[in-house]
Amino acid sequence: MTLSDSPCLTLAITRLTAAETEHYAVWVLKAPYPGGYVHHDSTWPQLLAHIWQSWQEMFCLRGLPQVPRISSAPLPSLPPVLPLEAVPTPIGYKDGYGGRLMQHLGVSLWQWLFEGVIQSSLDQSQGIAIGQNKSLRVRLEIRDPNLVALPWEIMQPQPGKQAISLSQQLLFSRTTSDVDPLPPLRITQTLKILLVLGQDIGPEGGNNLQASPASAALQLETEAASLAQVLSNSSDFEITSPNLRTSVPCQVDTLVKPTPKELITQLETGYYNILFYAGHGVPAPDGGLLQLRSDCTLSGTELAQVLTRCHVTLAVFNACWGAQPDQDEQFRAIARSSLAEVLIHHGVPAVLGMRDSIADQEALSFIQVFAQALTQRMPIDQAVAVARQHLLTLYKFNQPAWTLPVLYMHPEFNGELVKPLEEGTTELPFNSPTLTRHTLPIASLRLLGDPDQTWAIQGGLMRVGRKGENDLVISEQWVSQKHAEIFCRDTPSSSNSEHPTYFLRDFSRYGTLILRAEGWQKVHHQEVPLHSGLRLKFGSSQGQTLEFVIESPNTRNKI
Prior knowledge:
By secondary structure, this protein is α/β, with parallel strands linked by helices. It contains nine helices and 25 strands. Helix 1 (46-59) crosses helix 2 (96-113) and helix 4 runs parallel beside helix 8. It is globular and about 75 Å long.
């Protein structure tokens, strides 16, 4: 069973008013059943604020200029040890207090978020997913920037239960509805990765770019070699799952301490679907700063432009604070200022950043397993859960390593980098009675004005629509979920022609526009033949113009 169409429950949190700093609303933005759209108002409990501050004092690896606060209300003096005696020490923990504190914050966050009707919506949504033999995607949109820094990934329903970000039955990620539409994604059966190695040590002096005294030079060259080796040997790596059988080919290109121009040029010419960045980063109002070289930084806003323009699907940052918001002069969190949020806000489908500084070996361990899971065709959120489980196994529950990766996903994105085998197009066999007289012609759709945006029609069939399971996904609002099919058929009327005939069959609400000699004509719930050079628009005259192209088999390497 694949995960692309798994049910999804999306929650949102926001502060009710600026004057009521402790009062929040929690509600369901998306649910797999009509009754799941519920709302709950809640007060942020003072005890939870105590636990969060104590958690930071124990687990925060490198402090920001001011410890982030949940609200502007002053906190009373904290006792040196929180009253956690009621929570039993997990068996096997050498540091009993650390383990109890991790668990206590996770349980407290869960109880606050999933209170009353919100818990009921989760339970029924998960029941629907179980009935369909699928996982439930749980996405959290945090609209109050003061809550972004909290480790929501450690939420667990009760002591002894699995944290939400470790589960493969509840695939957890963060999201935001304040986003640009998701652009059409490249249909691919390969992973093409650009690995960027930035400055290994932050420069001394200069505002927020000082390196921590405890910071050591990152072993970036070693990391690049290790990751490339993992990807090149991915076919030898096996993950037990009924859905994951064959690894996908990967190509890894590396840039070492590039200038911004060199990075942008490589992205524009390389057609990558994954960007890995390893190096130093710091918070800043415009999405943080990545230290490419000692004399060059790149902001998240600047990077977002090229990633969306080049249709990069996933951006991964082994850099400190990639998922942490910046603060203003009053030490208040700035909305949508973290690198991950800025990239998602601009329309990047998925971003993985670190909530805090992460040790070199921890980051490499996570990236290795994460990359291996992607080569096994796992959706991104499932691959993150697998890699996070690996970190917990290596570094234990009462250590912060497994809590550091934070995944953001675009609300329209289903997490697929490559299609699972079960959802790939069924190709017509060469001895099919419909194609006995001809070699299957090579056909594709191309975005007019951008010949680099080309989607091949593989196996003689392409499904077009807004739903993620289509071969060509078009996110424009006037495109139907299952809009149309383009398919190849060898008809009697085409038996004397050079090629079998391609047809378009429309299933949509608003139809498909085809440019004829007399102008644009609508095809609605009809089947029409296509010829090479024909121009199409799906759903509206305002939509993107695509060109249908047929080339001879001898030009296959040109597509």
